[in-house]
Amino acid sequence: xxxxxxxxxxxxxxxxxxxxxxxxxxxxxxxxxxxxxxxxxxxxxxxxxxxxxxxxxxxxxxxxxxxxxxxxxxxxxxxxxxxxxxxxxxxxxxxxxxxxxxxxxxxxxxxxxxxxxxxxxxxxxxxxxxxxxxxxxxxxxxxxxxxxxxxxxxxxxxxxxxxxxxxxxxxxxxxxxxxxxxxxxxxxxxxxxxxxxxxxxxxxxxxxxxxxxxxxxxxxxxxxxxxxxxxxxxx
Length: 235
Description:
Blueprint: E1 2-6, H1 13-22, E2 30-33, H2 44-54, E3 57-58, H3 62-71, H4 77-84, H5 97-104, E4 109-114, E5 117-122, E6 151-153, E7 160-164, E8 170-174, E9 187-192, E10 197-202, H6 208-217, H7 221-232
């Protein structure tokens, strides 16, 4: 089975559209998204529509949960705007009913077997599927959590990682498609369960339209600087 796994698009329609152009001629069996349609940038509604059209199997990310909390009156809009920018400003009124229903179908975690491998998919970690983070240098205390699992696919950190644990489990993070933070570009991974092979691919897209969006939509200079800095880091 050939799986394309990508994560953390964060409203970056430009990267998402280029990604689908890049994979147009790739043969694959499953297309899986690791969570976080929302946060930072501004085209979550458009991206959800694309995912519905392309029949992407989606996990729920922490930012997606934040949006649902906002929708359900469990969070204040201003709190999210202060932390993450105007992507959350009046966002509830910008999302179609169909896309809200689609978002509610996202799973916190799912797993299946392929070619004798037990594969687990989540946004965060085995012990905290929404908010847990494992970086390449994170100390893992309890390997028992990974017992019987061959591959864990996760996102959330925006850092690419192929990490093999001493108990035989491998943790794969494709990095972020919408907001790279490791200085190595926006990316996704192709994994072949039969060949036990993987390839991390970089998505090259024009940053100028997104930077223009940031300059026009964000009101505070420090938020503009923050969003542009992380977007352009080491590119």
